[in-house]
Amino acid sequence: MTxxxxxxxxxxxxxxxxxxxxxxxxxxxxxxxxxxxxxxxxYVGMQTCKSCHANVHSTFIHTGMGRSFDxxxxxxxxxxxxxHAVVYDEASDLYYYPFFRDSQMYVLEYRLEGLDxxxxxxxxxDYIVGSGQHTNSHMVDFNGYLYQAPVTYYTQEGRWDMAPGxxxxxxxxxxxxxxxxxxxxxxxxEQALGSMNKYVKMPTGIECERCHGxxxxxxxxxxxxxxxxxxxxxxxxxxxxxxxxxxxQMDLCxxxxxxxxxxxxxxxxxxDFKPGMRLNEVFNVFLPRYTDSHEKFIMASQADRLRxxxxxxxxxxxxxxxxxxxxxxxxxxxDQYNNACRSCHDGPEESACAFPLAERLPQSNDCSGCHxxxxxxxxxxxxxxxxxxxxxxxxxxSKKEQPAxxxxxxxxxxxxxxxxxxxxxxxxxxxxxYDKYVQSPMVxxxxxxxxxRSKAAEAARFPVEVHYFFAREDYSNxxxxxxxxxxxxxxxxxxxYRIGEAFYQAGAFQNAATFYRRADELLPFHLDFxxxxxxxxxxxxxxxxxxxxxxxxxxxxxxxxxxxxxFGFARVLQGHTKEAETYYDSAIALDPDYTQALLNKxxxxxxxxxxxxxxxxLNRVLKLDPEHPQAMAILQQLNELQ
Length: 642
Fold this sequence. Notes:
The protein is of the alpha+beta class. The chain has 26 helices and 18 strands.
């Protein structure tokens, strides 16, 4: 495939067009020569880029990246609304009704008992995620803390349904949206220091500098009149991805188009990656492989599927061989993709393809459509996407019946960001797989095997070994492994939290509080850690401090059932039962199936000898968990009292 032919497919206009019509240097440019990769170079924003590159901007804003994220407005949504929009989740027995009231979008969650509404919760939708090519997903903003709403609109089928991953495991409005998620679906938001999902400033869509790097140096030089003839020379003030080596080009694209199990390098964040860097400088990505992985793939697996293809392995192609990032795929003609195929598979049309011309013509002689068929993904329902694995065996024109898929047998976890991972990196990958996707003892066995093989230093192994025992719920070994460690010596918030939880499970609440405090010091806006600290303080009867901690959580985010319930319990212990009940009611209004809040309210009602209400609440608990020992015991005592 000649470079000249490739570049003819990929014109983008203005400066980018000049880049695309010149030959690459004989040697790929090294990333360390770019001035905008120096630490401290600032991002200038897409509006600044637009002032010189208006023609590129005018097409980019219509791409999937340009439309990836915005406020929840009627202009942004691709959904239809009305009575048909009601979604029922059978597993949780909850209904969801999305709608607009004036210019604001909402989702109403409710539960029915016969014709009666016995629960309802109304939440404002603040952001819509997705270009509309496949889905619109929705976000709620609780005082800067972002969570995913439980319903998604699937544009290709024109239907509402539960959001991906929510069907059968409906965590409702509590799936926090961390930087790992947001920084692929959006530009770089400003995150509150020490938080997982609290944001101070939220952009509205992926911008130019995600692929070109920070623009401060570039703007300064151009304003000073330092103009580079980019038809002959490389402008080192800004990155043109085409000038990067093949590996660096692929790392740039697979920053977001290589979905998998992501593990950050120690001390790194998802904000640290810039175009021109190797991805494994910031994080590693792992994928589980199964015997039928060649037939099944996840939504954002384009880079992985492409790299498995013979076309990729036997050429110098990259993503931009076929794709112009400045132009929407919705307006890109099929010839752009097919010409890329023909640039390698040239020759007479009759011999370039194994299928007779008569069979190809009814399909418009569509090389890419045949060898990269569209199908569903295994992680997102109701979508139809292009499989980027270029294969002869899966052509849509073939009339031969394909063999039945072999039942998926787990083969192991593969690291995709480097040739091979160290034993400790592989252990981290398996632990992340267990935490995020597959809670199987087999996965933990693999993590243990790699840990036993690791020759890493003690400081590097310690947090991973604590993580392993914690995942096993082997709290005694968490405590043995961390014996002698002072909380102040622990540098990782999650490690401090896991040690604190092990102490809590052992009933050593003072030690638990010490390590929870350390976790809170390291991630002060991670509300789970604050809630755990508050719970430990309640157990220690340090009620004034417990109320201070839990009250802070409630002020930060009033939609936290656990904080509300624990605050209520602290009030009960001080004799304020009436006030406590209001907190329990608030927790139950947010989560009608929160067993502990229900039991706490039953206890208060029991103190008031309101036996009828107590019996109703206990039966409600037993409906959720027919074998709940505490509810059964209280109900038996209640029957004896009556």
